[in-house]
Structure formats: C-alpha cells, structure tokens
Specification:
Organism: Duganella margarita
Distance between the termini: 98 Å
Radius of gyration: 27 Å
Protein name: DUF3304 domain-containing protein
Number of helices: 1
Pfam families: DUF3304
Strand content: 25-35%
Strand order of the largest sheet: 4-1-7-8
Number of strands: 8
Length: about 160
C-alpha cells in the first residue's frame, strides 16, 4: 500500500469536507443573525394620575383592562411588540375610554415614546387635561428606577 497515493485520493474528500463545514457554519451564523428580531414582545400597563376611572386603554391597538382613579397597574395586558432600540420620533397611538359622569368618552392621541435604553413593558400614563406619556421600562412603576414617580391622590 502506497501512502502517497492514498493521500492523493483522500485530498479531494478532505477539501470537500472542509468546504462543507464552512458552508454549514456560515448558514448557522446567518440563521442566528436572521433570528434576532428588531422587535421585542411587550406587556402593557396603565398608570392613572387622574381622579377619573379608565374603562380601557390601548397602545397601537393592543391593550384592554381598566384602571381605578389614581391607580398603578402591572404590565399584565398581553401584548404588543416594540422596537428593541428606541429612536427619535418614535410614536404610538394611545386610545382610552375615560367616562365623564354618565357620558362615555373615548379619546385617542398620537404620543411620543420616551427614550429607553433597554426594551421592557409599555406603560401608558394618563394625566389631567388628556396629557398622556408612554414609557418603556423593565421596572415597575413605583420602583426607584422607574422614570415617572406616581404621586397617587394629591388629596
């Protein structure tokens, strides 16, 4: 048996095997990169800074639930998606149902999303005079790390 001739016959097989490994690794890397979405799933929460009850609220059509006067809610309304990275000018459509007396009042407003560094849950903050702020945070309203402190009922 001649080792040199065996190596010559094995060389194409080694090259083909090496090329196949490169293709498989390249496909795996591409597949992993393609699997990283630019969007993240987010739960939705409501924070009410008013003395009026909120029957329901949504952000970009996702939401529901209700919130008592001066109430803070967990982000337990499922769900929507948000960009993993905040960008200037990011806006959402907020729609809410806040009755006045016995009259049902559905309102909507396009709201800028406040800057965030890490994706998390979406919280809609409702203030008097139909002021609405939208915060994305991995912290719960009321925690020291949360960007808007809820003062509760001022009375």
């Amino acid at each position: 048996m001649n080792i040199g001739s065996e190596m010559k016959r094995a060389s194409p097989l080694i090259l083909i095997s090496f090329a196949l490994v490169i293709v498989i690794v390249g496909c795996a890397v591409h597949r992993t990169q393609a699997g990283l979405s630019e969007k993240a799933t987010a739960q939705i929460g409501i924070v009410n800074h008013t003395g009026s009850y909120i029957y329901s609220a949504s952000v970009n059509g996702a939401g529901g639930g209700n919130m008592a006067r001066w109430g803070i809610g967990f982000a337990n309304i499922c769900c929507t998606s948000i960009p993993r990275a905040w960008h200037p000018g990011m806006k959402v459509l907020v729609r809410w149902n806040m009755p006045i007396g016995t009259k049902d009042m559905v309102k909507e407003k396009v709201v800028l999303v406040e800057k965030y560094d890490v994706s998390g849950s979406i919280y809609m903050h409702f203030f008097p005079n139909d002021e609405v702020r939208v915060v994305v945070s991995r912290f719960y309203p009321g925690s020291a790390e949360y960007p808007i402190q809820h003062l509760g009922n001022p009375n």
